[in-house]
Amino acid sequence: MLKFVVNCVLAIAGSIALAGPAGALSPDEARHLLLRTGFGATPMQIRALEPMDRAKAVRTILDSTTTEAVTPPPAFMSNPRPDWPAHYKSTDEDAKGVFNRARDAEAVQLKAWWYAEMIATPSPFTERMVLFWHNHFTSGMDKVRHTDLLFRQNALFRTHATGSFRTLLQAVAKDPAMVRYLDSQANKKAAPNENFARELLELFTLGEGHYSEKDIREAARAFTGWHMNDADGQFRFNKGQHDDGDKTVLGKTGKFDGNDVIDVILAKPEAAQFVTAKLWREFVSDTSDKAEINRLAKIYRDNDYDTRKLLEALFAAPAFWAPENRGSLVKSPVELMVGTVRTFEIPVADTTPFVEYGKRLRQDIFNPPNVKGWPGGNWWISTYTLLERRELVLRLLNGSDLGAAPGGGGMGGNAMGGNSMSMAATPAAAGAPDPAAPKPVPGIALWVNAHGDLAKSADGAAKLLLAAGPVAPPAADKTGRAMVEALVLDPAYQVK
Amino acid sequence: MVDLAMNRRRFLEGTALLALTGALPSGCATAPQTGATASLNNVLVLVELNGGNDGLNTVIPYADPLYAKLRPTIGLPREQLVQLTDKIGLHPGLAPLQSAWAERELAIVQGVGYAEPNLSHFRSIEIWESASDSDELLPDGWLARVLVKQPGAARRPAEGAVFGRPSIGPLMGANARAVLMDSVQNFANKATKVQPLTASGGNAALAHVVRTQGEIARAGEMLAAKLQAKPTPIQTPFPKTNLGGQMSNAARLIASGADVPVIKVSLGSFDTHTYERNTHDRLMAELGGALGAFRLAMIETGQWSRVAVMTYSEFGRRAGENSAQGTDHGTAAPHFVMGPGVRGGFHGKAPALDDLADGNLKHQVDFRDMYASVLKQWWNIDPRQAMNRTGADLKLFG
């Protein structure tokens, strides 16, 4: 009761302090929405959302969603597709080594490309959803090896980022990278391979405990012959390897093919609940709330798995805005890195170093640890990764390794460009850096210069940068750069 | 043969004792204890075979005609195996374990699994790491549950150290401290620059970050002191493989004398649905090479007497191969326990190849009886502190 009264008083005090239009967001709420749906938040972005009410702010973010990347595809995508059939047949170990090293180099390009897109995109929310689907429908370079297929899978996630989950799932089942990743290629009439069917039920839709081993075996039969062509990298229905007999999956019987099985699965409320619970963990809280998740899942199912509809309801849920849920999720390594770059508007000329950074922080994009993806949440923080995260944030803020253009890419003029970030990756300048060139302007100095008025005190800066009050507030004599450094090393910088 | 091995073992224990008492303060006992108090100075090194290791291609019943029948393309021919008996051989990649076998320091526990097997990677590894029944959800790791109850927490930098795959598994929860590291020396160097915090975090996520920062500072300080006191590098070469690197760090940590009772390393992925032999042969060689070098390094540094190594994996694989020269998720599999305190030889019972359940091997030994034996015999801890079992049937040590 007392707690309730105190909360009420605080809420009233907060709304008085606001003095904005009715229902307008507080600065804390605006920052919360940005951190939860994007990568970091600049003071300008926070200000831009403040006059809006919750519904309008959420709509603004959802409306910004795009279906195509703004960054040009990695260079290797303009090359002819490598001759995989010849590679598989070859016994020339040297040639095979050369071939494999070329693919590894492409994988680095691919990862750097996605980092560049996450930094440059006008819709960070889109990339958060692409990341979400990448972690849901995992496929990894270690097994897939065909870099162009991984690029195309990434584009598929963007196309359907907030679209129909049914359409996305149908497309994923035929996605050539997935066909390779979960051995659909080996799924044949005479000897079905269970790998894809198992993960379809366990990890993509229903979750453990809502199907039997027999359901897996029967579902696998429905996907027999869903192969890919190594030569052109396209999905290929191999009729001769397809089992067109009766199958019984989840109590339903028919001459099912893969799409029929997907329909049988999605008719189960548990499928909507499973995906909704995962989005809840991604955007709302590590603590599940069964009643709320079931309420939202019903919206999802009633709208035929329209993901945008679900997200609207999710971001309107009281739990999303609850003060006790703010700052309660650990930032993923990608969010930490890309969020730091975007928050401090750090000029980045070459995103290649992020590839190695991501690995060190245990989020090697395009290469999840296994088919279940990254566990997320508190798992991101271990004794090893916390040390690395602190070190990397400082490196980013000091502009180390980023190939930043001398002078910081013109911080004075357009660094404040709001959404249209002036930091799209451009090809790194060739050759050694010119020793006579002025040192790059560190992001931290840039931020302090630009926002000195907002961040006169550690308190003011903390409200812009941290999702929760600092655990160890900087000493009063720390100002400018030292003060901001102390804030980003505070545990509160690790959460969103 | 047996006498020689025993003599050699006592000799090793003696040198280990000398080495330790020479360089360390009191309180660092060595050999397995028989007294009433837990002796967490004994170290357990867990090797997670991530992805589900194919037991039938690891400890191979080559004399059973059904083996060749179940494995027409991926089966290993008798002449390639490390023959242990006239019926059973090891995968050739495990040849470096031959000397441990000859010294009776290698226990092979056959047919390990559990009732009502779950064939999901993620659920089954939870069952193994929490030591639960198949249909029981336990929040904490089996070692976390037990170790936090043992005295001496203040002397320990952490309950466990984890190298390789960033999964703390059996050390999860129960407020146990698990330190993940890339290398012991790097960790100590970096961690000593981090300050512990006096305040605690508000919500659970923040509290986790604050707590982790505290663990870094504390473990870093203790490890740095130990490493400084014992700067001598280990001479034994380790294979330049992922697991070789992990085991080299495990060896460095143990040789430093730091009080860390559990070290977890991992190797994978063993999820060999297609073209199993390419992957599995490489992983077996990586496992054999790293374990062989680790044993020699422990003997070199006089630490072997206080070390036991145990493998585990979420499941074995289907008895028969599939159409893609691979194997699908299965059930029971053999596991290894290695160390001078171990009762070498075969334990448990190999599942019959003509008595399968849905194509899967029937388990003969509950995995928790292996744990119980470790707890009781290696640490002198009542297994019932961790689970509802005494493991009376399995005596892996002594």
Quick overview:
The complex is a heterodimer of chains A (496) and B (398). Helices cover 53% and strands 2% of the residues of chain A.
Radius of gyration of chain A: 24 Å
Major sheet strand order of chain A: 1-2
The share of residues in extended strands of chain A comes to under 5%
What's the shape of chain A?
globular
The percentage of residues in β strands of chain B lies in 5-15%
**Most extensive interface: pair and counts?**
A-B, 44 and 50 residues
Number of DSSP E strands of chain B: 12
Overall mean pLDDT score of chain B? 90
The class by helix and strand makeup of chain A works out as mainly alpha
Order of helices and strands of chain A: HHHHHHHHHHHHHEEEEHHHHHHHHHHHH
DSSP helical segment count of chain B: 10
Largest sheet of chain B: 9 strands, mixed
Low-confidence residue ranges of chain B: 1-36
Q: What do the pLDDT scores of chain A average to? A: 88
The helix count of chain A comes to 25
SS elements, strand count of chain A: 4
Report helical residue fraction of chain A. 40-55%
Proportion in helices of chain B: 25-40%
Rg for CA atoms of chain B: 21 Å
This entry's quaternary arrangement is: heterodimer
Describe what you observe in this structure.
- Chain A is mainly alpha-helical.
- Helices cover 53% and strands 2% of the residues of chain A.
- Chain A has a two-stranded antiparallel sheet with strand order 1-2. A two-stranded antiparallel sheet of chain A has the order 3-4.
- In chain A, helix 19 packs parallel to helix 21 (383-397).
- Chain A starts with a helix and ends in an 8-residue tail after the last helix.
- The model of chain A is unreliable at 1-19 and 405-433 (pLDDT under 50).
- With 398 residues, chain B is α/β, with parallel strands linked by helices.
- In chain B, 34% of the residues lie in helices and 13% in strands.
- Chain B is built from 10 helices and 12 strands.
- In chain B, the strands form 2 sheets. In chain B, strands 1, 5, 6, 7, 8, 9, 10, 11 and 12 form a 9-stranded mixed beta sheet that branches. Chain B has a 3-stranded antiparallel beta sheet with strand order 2-4-3, with no helix packed on it.
- In chain B, helix 8 (242-255) packs parallel to helix 9 (276-300).
- Chain B is globular and about 65 Å long.
- The two termini of chain B are 17 Å apart.
- Residues 1-36 of chain B have low confidence and may be disordered.
- Chains A and B meet through helix 12 and helix 21 of A and helix 4, strand 7, helix 6 and helix 7 of B.
